[in-house]
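User: Can you help me understand a structure? I only have the sequence.
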Amino acid sequence: MRRMHFSITLLLLLTILSSNSWGARIKDIAEISGVRNNQLVGYGLVTGLAGTGDDLKKVLFTRQALYNMLVRQGITVNPTDFENIKVNNVAAVMVMATLPPFSKPGSTIDVQVSSIGDADSLAGGNLLLTPLKGPDGKVYAVAQGPLTIGAFSFGGKAAKAQQNHPTVGRIASGATIERVVPTQFGENGFLSYTLRQADFTTASNMSNSINEIYGENTAFPVDSATIKVTIPENFLDDTVRFVASIEGIKVKIDSNARVVVNERTGTIVMGQDVRLSTVAVSHGNLSLVIKESFEVSQPNPLAPGQTVVTPQTTIDVIEDDGEIMVVKEGVSIGEVADALNAIGATPRDLIAIFQAIKAAGAMQGEFIVL
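Assistant: Let's start by predicting it. Here is the structure, written out as tokens:
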């Protein structure tokens, strides 16, 4: 007998604690507008591969890039003859990096390299000098150096062994910054904070917390995601110290009451502010039980015939009686989940029940199905 069971994975996400003393730091929930990372990208070549590079006869842009690189190095190559050259130790790659705010020329950043041709592996390769450009088309950094792969790929015509992704690598401190990104910081005596998750209540709480320390009208919520902060006169020449003091202020955060379910993984995430109206719930479980047994059939003594094994299969459908549970008004959905888990409800049962409660209009909160 084999019976399928689904493991219960129930995560209670407490978005807001009931204690008034609890709060999140401003640096964890908001960021200063204009102070942000910038994405850089570039096209380059990786050389020194052990026969695992691009096939130049198939990947034309790799052949063109290699030809242009040789010409820039002062090597004269006949384009017609170059088409017949067999080189398999070069691969075309895209190089990506993140430029942090306030980066200065001469400092270094990490880069990630990924193949865009048909190379089998970038292991052992070296990235040639590659300019990294921003969305404005300007070069902000240059990258070069040996790759670290953290993967391998070996094999022949009949078999192949691979671990992780050998066509993606990384170069620690592989790019040198050449240009500064202009950053607006404290201009005109104001700072503009942006909440990572917009909420009117959280914006108001953040403004009130700042005003309690630095006086009324220091901070003002512009909308659900933006808080405008006036820099006090005694901090106009020391904006960094003012920002550092702002970052440590605790703010009571708020968010919408919601339930998020994923039936594929059996995951249920609930906020503690979700409440239910008075509702009666009944849910029956349907079980399919398959039994398989074997019987031996043999002839009587001295009778003709052979001894054979005959399988016997029985299928039973069992439907458990569903008990009616009355949920009183104001009960949290977490308490309902605890009660349902106590009687052995599976994640599929819980998801079906919560969907029915939402459809009945008895759930005060969002219901999101992934």
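Now, to help you interpret it: The two ends are 33 Å apart (CA to CA). The mean pLDDT is 79. Let me know which part you'd like to focus on.
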